[in-house]
Design brief:
The chain has helices at about 5-30, 40-75, 80-85, 90-100, 135-140, 150-155, 160, 175-185, 210-230. By secondary structure, the chain is mainly alpha-helical. The chain has a domain at about 80-185: Cytochrome c-like domain (Cytochrome Bc1 Complex, Chain D, domain 2, Orthogonal Bundle). Helix 4 packs across helix 8 and helix 6 crosses helix 8.
């Protein structure tokens, strides 16, 4: 082998080595490995902080809505008691309301049952005690007496008051309309005394306040002081 051929082989080997080294360096440059870019953590932190702020804002908004709802519930007017409603009930208006029940009930003494039992003398009667009518087992098990309160609950929502009752009537939701109807039913042979309505609360005009008391005593105190001063002179 002469020197020319040797130089060719050596040059080829050197070129191959340089090529391999160049490819390795280029690969390291293109696919750099090492610690992650710290900016990535900063972005994640910003996202989490933003999410936290949104969550806090959502919680504050929810708390505000709940507080507003609580204030609205506190400001809602209280419903009058049944005794108060009965005291101002209109039996004539109740008779008109009773007409919607006439398809299923009789209101005259001795008229007997229809689809439902006779409602004459129902106020004060035992529950499920009308003779000649087959009551549901749910109403029989309910028991008790048809007091003013019990009638009001049942008329408002029959199936809610007595689950399983066969009565399909949806109920009367307006409290005063129920009171009018009960007042009418009470005239049908029962005539029970109405419950006593709660006494009205004392008004500011009829009650002396703590601030008014010193003002009322002030003139008398001034007169006493003036009189004592005159005696001293």
């Amino acid at each position: 082998m002469n020197s020319f051929e040797f130089n060719k082989i050596a040059g080829a080997v050197l070129a191959s080595v340089l090529f391999i080294l160049g490819v390795s360096v280029l690969a390291d440059m293109l696919y750099e490995t090492g610690e992650a870019n710290p900016k990535a953590y900063e972005v994640a932190a910003l996202v989490e902080e933003g999410a936290g702020e949104e969550a806090a804002a959502g919680e504050e908004a929810g708390a505000g809505e709940e507080a507003a709802a609580g204030e609205g519930a506190a400001e809602a007017p209280q419903e009058d008691s049944l005794a108060t409603l009965l005291a101002q009930a209109d039996a004539a208006a109740g008779a008109k309301t009773a007409k919607k029940c006439a398809a299923c009930h009789n209101f005259e003494e001795g008229a007997g049952a229809k689809i439902g039992p006779d409602l004459y003398h129902v106020v004060g009667r035992e529950v499920a005690a009308q003779g000649g009518f087959s009551y549901s087992s749910a109403l029989k098990d309910h028991g008790g007496t048809w007091t003013f309160e019990e009638l009001s609950h049942f008329i408002a929502d029959p199936r809610g008051c007595v689950p399983g009752t066969a009565m399909s009537f949806a109920g009367i939701k307006k409290p005063q309309q129920r009171a009018d109807l009960i007042a009418y039913l009470n005239t049908l042979g029962s005539n029970l005394p109405l419950p006593n309505a709660p006494a009205p609360s004392a008004t500011d005009d009829g009650a002396e306040t703590a601030d008014d008391a010193p003002a009322a005593d002030a003139p008398a105190a001034d007169a006493t002081a003036t009189e004592e001063k005159s005696k001293g002179e």
